[in-house]
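job 3f2a | input accepted
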Amino acid sequence: MAFQAKFLGKDSINYGGSKTFVYDASSTGANEAIAAINTSGYFNEAWNDLAVNDRIRVIATDGQFEVYVNANNYDAVAGTGAVDVTDGLQVTATDSD
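job 3f2a | predicted structure (97 res):
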């Protein structure tokens, strides 16, 4: 299953001009893992909303991750953008008490 914009939401937190988004890949029905999501071009449909250094908190089937947009190129001839994100840093939490 491919990216679905309806599951990408903008968080209210901004860091020095960078925006934070949340993408719930488990809600897409595709049950996508981070390996599919961090593929170059996965977020192309959202090229107009995403900018370099924006952060996306991803809820994938194999955990929660933070990825950063590291490239967003607009092709004026094709009228589309190409978005690439980092591999993703897994977010873990331990409650040892």
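job 3f2a | The mean pLDDT is 85.
job 3f2a | closed
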